[in-house]
Every structure is written in C-alpha cells, then in structure tokens.
Amino acid sequence: MCLGIPGEVIEFLPDQPDLARVDVSGVRRVVNVGLLSDDPPAPGEWVLIHVGFALSKIDEDEAAAALEFLEGIGQAYEDELAALQESRID
User: Fold this and answer.
1) Dist CA 52 CA 76 (whole Å)
2) Are 2 and 76 in contact (CB under 8 A)?
3) CA distance 46 to 4
4) CATH value at residue 59
5) Which helix (H) or strand (E) holds 29?
6) Which of 7, 48, 54, 73 has its CA at a distance of 20 to 30 angstroms from the CA of residue 32?
7) Residue 57 class from Cβ within 10 Å (0-12 exposed, 13-18 middle, 19+ buried)?
8) Mean pLDDT estimate for the chain
9) How many domains would you assign to the chain?
C-alpha cells in the first residue's frame, strides 16, 4: 500500500529550488516540490508527499488529522515510516 504522508517543509536546497528538505514524523527527507510551482510552500508549511513528490500544500490541522489517521491504521503506516527511515537523506 502506498500512502500520502504529511511533511513539514524545513528548507530548500540552495542549488536546486525544486527540492526541499521536509520532516516526516521525525525523519528528514528531500522531496521534489516542483509540482507546486504555482504556489510553492515556504519553510514551516506542510505538504502531502507521495513517492518523493509533494502533491499539494495542506494546513497544519489537515496534517495533524492525516497523521492521526495514519497512526490509526497501524502496520501500513509503520512500513511507510520504515521505508522513509531507510532512505533517510540529511
């Protein structure tokens, strides 16, 4: 099962403006935010991430609700976090 997971934008990579470092449940990951070029996120904003791409901006309340739901589904969420942890990029 593939999930869209909320992540908070931490910073943009200086040499690659389409890439941002995000925090996903404690795991920092570089994701492509190029799909959001019409309304790019700023540090501190939340995005919904799927397979390394930010698909949309979401507000903090939406992010909290999504994380609560994901934590409630158990193993699929744990598997997704484990996959993120294994591919951790700092």
Assistant:
1) 17
2) no
3) 12
4) 2.30.30.140
5) strand 27-32
6) 73
7) middle
8) 86
9) 1
Nearest to 88 by CA among 21, 1, 2, 3: 21
Question: DSSP states of 53-66 as a string?
Answer: EEEEEE-HHHHHHH
Its domain, for residue 60, covers 5-86
Longest Cα pair distance anywhere in the chain, in angstroms?
38
pLDDT tens per residue across span 31-75: 999 999 999 999 999 999 988 899 999 999 999 998 888 878 777
Sign of CA dihedral 52, 7, 38, 40: negative
- For residue 23, the surrounding DSSP H or E stretch is strand 16-24
